[in-house]
């Protein structure tokens, strides 16, 4: 697992696997889940990270996500 934070973009990227990204789905206003061609969850992108973690106490991964 890799974590990358960009202060300029205020975005946190959590990479779960070293696989090519095929598509992404917005799972909430501030979270985009990126999947491989085989529909496996590869990366989670948290937008507006600083305000996201101030407002939320937990992160929920959708049930259909394959980890």
Question: How is this structure best described in words?
Answer:
The protein is mainly beta. The chain has one domain (2-55). The protein contains 1 helix and 5 strands. The chain has one helix at residues 49-55; strands at residues 2-6, 11-15, 23-28, 31-35, 41-46. The chain has a 5-stranded antiparallel beta sheet with strand order 1-2-5-4-3. A hairpin with a 4-residue loop joins strand 1 and strand 2 (11-15). It is globular and about 35 Å long. It starts with a strand and ends in a 12-residue tail after the last helix. The mean pLDDT is 86.
Keywords:
67 residues; mainly beta; five-stranded antiparallel beta sheet
What is the strand and helix layout of this fold?
Blueprint: E1 2-6, E2 11-15, E3 23-28, E4 31-35, E5 41-46, H1 49-55
Separate helix tally: 1
Name the structural class. mainly beta
**Number of beta strands:** 5
Oligomer: single chain
Amino-to-carboxy terminus distance: 12 Å
The low-confidence parts are none
Major sheet: arrangement of strands: 1-2-5-4-3
Average of pLDDT: 86
Q: Which H/E pattern describes the elements?
A: EEEEEH
Number of domains: 1
Helical percent range? Answer: 10-25%
Rg (CA only) = 12 Å
How large a portion of the residues is in β-strands, by DSSP E? Answer: 35-45%
């Amino acid at each position: 697992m890799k974590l990358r934070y960009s202060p300029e973009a205020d975005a946190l990227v959590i990479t779960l696997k070293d696989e090519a990204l095929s598509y992404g789905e917005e799972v909430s206003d501030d979270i985009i889940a990126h999947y491989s061609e085989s529909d496996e969850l590869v990366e989670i992108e948290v937008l507006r990270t600083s305000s996201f973690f101030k407002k939320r106490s937990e992160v929920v991964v959708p049930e259909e996500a394959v980890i």
